[in-house]
Automatic annotation (TrEMBL):
InterPro entries: BEACH_dom, BEACH_dom_sf, BEACH_Domain, FAN-like_PH, PH-BEACH_dom, PH-like_dom_sf, WD40/YVTN_repeat-like_dom_sf, WD40_repeat_CS. It comes from the Eukaryota. It holds the Pfam family WD40. Keywords: Repeat, WD repeat. WD repeats lie at residues 602-645, 691-722, 740-771, 782-823, 864-898. Gene3D superfamilies: BEACH domain, Pleckstrin-homology domain (PH domain)/Phosphotyrosine-binding domain (PTB), YVTN repeat-like/Quinoprotein amine dehydrogenase. This is Protein FAN isoform X1. SMART domains: Beach (SM01026), WD40 (SM00320). Residues 172-273 form the BEACH-type PH domain. Residues 277-564 form the BEACH domain. CDD domains: Beach, WD40.
Amino acid sequence: MDKERFTMLLLEPGEIFFEDYSVAAKSIVNSPASETYDEWIDGRLKLCSKSLVFVNKELTKPLIKVQLKELINIEKWSSKDWSHGDDNILFVKCKQYVEMLQGNILAPYKFIHKENHFLFRFNYATIEDCLPQILQLLRATTLPTAEQNAMITAIVHSRQSRVSFDTSWLEDLYEQAVLELQADKISPLVVNPGRVLLTSSRIYFQPYNNMDQHPVLKIQLKDISQIIKRRFLLRQVGLEIVWRMRGPEAKKEHLFLSMRSHIDRDNLYRRLLDQSEVSLETVQQNQMTMQWQNGCLSNYDYLIYINSLADRTFHDLTQYPVFPWIIQDYTSSFLNLNDPAVYRDLTKPIGALEPTRLERLKERYLEMAEPKFLYGSHYSAPGFVLFYLVRKYPEYMLCLQNGRFDHPDRMFNSVADVWKNVLVNMSDFKELVPEFYDTETAGDFLANIYGIDFGYRHDGSKVNDVQLPPWAKDPADFVRQLRDALESPYVSQNLHSWIDLVFGYKQRGPQAVEANNVFFHLCYEGAVDLDTIQDINDRHGLEVQIMEFGQIPKQVFDLPHPKRMLSVPHVVCEKVVGLHDGSRFTETKISEIFTLQQSVVFQSHKDSVSCVNLMDGETGDDLISVGHDGMLKLYSMKTSKLTRSVPLSSLPLSSCISYKVPSQSNILVAGCWDNTIIFYDIEFGRIVDTLPGHEDAVSCLAWSSSRNILVSGSWDCTAKVWRSCSSGKKIKPAECLLAQLDHDAKITCINISGDDKLLACGTEDGELFLWCLEQFSLQFTVKGRMARVNAVVFDPESKQLVSCTKDHALKIMDVTTGTEIYSSILEKEPTSLCWRGTELLLVGDAEGYLSMWDLRGVFILGKFSCHNESITTLMVSSNKKKIVTGSRDRRVIIWDCK
């Protein structure tokens, strides 16, 4: 077929897809006796645990699903009047059938409530292979639901036990098998059985069917960043594996597995951790809480983190991440985030916000027998998640609700109406999902992006996009303002109270009763052990009840959650910036305290400028630049003229630094792509020496004046430390080389700390290496996101290390512990870094913009367009009055900074 339209979301939630057959099909219009037939149609027949699905080869024709429970008869076709002489045909007689994806358009399924007959002629398989399997599943449909599910589980287990992992899929013949077991791959509403094989270098998942994107999923153990134990269907049998895809984007991927038992799950977890290739990115929970508490982690990221700790995952709708309602004003034309009145009271659960309703709930609570509950509905359940996300994931809703959408009047039509309902309705207490605060997706769940016909409301209006409050221009603006509210000082100072209710000590027990936070007892973790319930009908009833009601997150905190000490200063928009005291001001006020004015422009290089350097830091008299044209350029900052142009090499020059030899003039050192380090005497205008320092291009240089050493980084994966040469002597590698520091990939950037004790090296594959320059020993290595480190720089106090990478990340880490204390994904790729003073960080990006970051509060103070192309190099004069930028646009610009 040209395109596979069949997905497991067209089946019942959790239904299993077994086999796929190439067939030709036709419908018998009246009855077998009438001999009135449609034409044969080519397609595929899908055998599933509760249905047969025919996928027409023509994309505009509907898929036909016949549920096994609707079958009247199924047998080998044996009509006496059949003249084609083909006896490899399946005859199906059913009471009703379902048409799906008519015209290849996602819409509610069409249920045909009439008796019909179908013929399926197998092209390759035989009736004898197929029919017994169908009859076995058909027998299961005659049983009660719980017994039917148990029989299907037994059939699945029997089929799986006869299959082993196909070792021909192994990537490396020398990798050793460690563990093989049965497991299900879990995605929202879909369970896909298969086999897991763990080897010494990879973990594989091989599904039993051909529905996955890959016949076998292969994950290198060294790419795994997280392994998390999860609950699935209230049982401790789940395992979520997070890894980074290799490639320029370094995209994060997830594999959610469900095992047969917690013993199997724990065994796989333990064996994974035992493998030497596995190196997890682990940060202790208290460290994360402290980072959030001190303003180094946003409220959004911290809530995502806590949800993960509490077994909430985007891959299981029964345990989807839960976020709070923050704003309670959905009628004003302007949202004033400085007004506390616009915020919801985070000290109370959603059901206790409206006093009148709460009193009615309490009256009912007092009249109940034990176990009592205050709220008969939950704040998060699969139906509530899809209520919000139906426009983004309509196929999930059709799967969950047997091919139907909600009644148009019960859909998510208006934000204001939903907020009103959760305040006053006696059975509506739902909180929000993360998408309400996710600026990356820009509120796409609020728009009918697929143009689906959801029907008409009672007033005749067509269900389309969600109606937003007057203060929001569009979905992206709505989500952005909600995100700003989430990161506001008010929420930052009160969010710990909501965390106590949902994830903390007020979740259960006497504290929950006192806080009016009591839900139905079966939704709490550990309320019932399903594995101990022998009666399958009782067990099934509990599962359905709990799944439909929702689950309380796993309790993360036993003590009151600490209050945040600092609110994260958050950019409301490009022209509005937050200050340390919490006030805000516009870009016009920024210009009053900070301006960048172009002073001199030099455009003399014939290729990209790779590095600039100021020869005299005190007066700033001379400026040097080198470029990919192999040229060295000298400029006079006094006369604003080019004073010298010297061809140092026929290959690109990557970097340059300068130092002063005792009793002599300044020496310029340039790194070249011909593997050499070039020493040029500026006063005498000649090359002093050329050092063949590396086996590949020299990519970067650094100089330590107090230690009198030169450090060179190279594409040969080494950084070399050289002793400065004495005047008039040739440089001999054997005598001047102090240390060779080996790395795992090409070195792209280096920096020496202000106290000359540490050396930081960034590499092509995204790793950061921190070296001690006293013993030339490795302090630690930080694995990145498999994206090139563009620049790295120590803070002026040598306590933190700032790096930027090709995947738009700007990160700050503690040099003592290696702990990441701040991370931000920038709109444009950051390419160069430089400090101006002790707090202001200059960031040049790939589109020629220069940003001013105040790293004490971690916010952008200003943003200026400086070049037409990427800013490749930055330099600040020692008096901080001038900034020099170089770019791929071949220009060097001197800026006056006030």
